[in-house]
Design brief:
By secondary structure, the chain is mainly α. It has 4 helices and no strands. Helix 1 packs antiparallel against helix 2 and helix 2 runs antiparallel to helix 3. The mean pLDDT is about 80. InterPro entries: GPCR_Rhodpsn_7TM.
Amino acid sequence: MLTLTPVIVYRLYKQQAKKRNMRKGGASTNDRADKETLKVSAMLVAVVVAYVVFIMPVTVVHLATNSSKHQSIHEAESIGYFVMIEAAQLLELLNYSTNFIMYVVGSRQFRQNIVLLLKDCIGFEKIC
């Protein structure tokens, strides 16, 4: 993820520059496309940063457990080790919930699709 994300962001900007050169539309169309590319790039970077920050502790705990005498992370002998495991697992769970929140906050299209999904599945007529 750390190596491919900068490549993807670079390619998004490069593709946007190509579109801008080929487009014969007005400046407002270009500005809107530039803003959309910036939003997508920012969302991609935010998801990757959140992933690294929230998943790194549980990865370190698993690596430490594998290199120690413990066979599993659930064989904690000290209270400090147990607290560290639980905190790392809590951060891992936060990663998944923050991704959803980032998409809801950052993308109008995602919000609209969630509303449509809820309307179809649950039968809501109007959702604020």
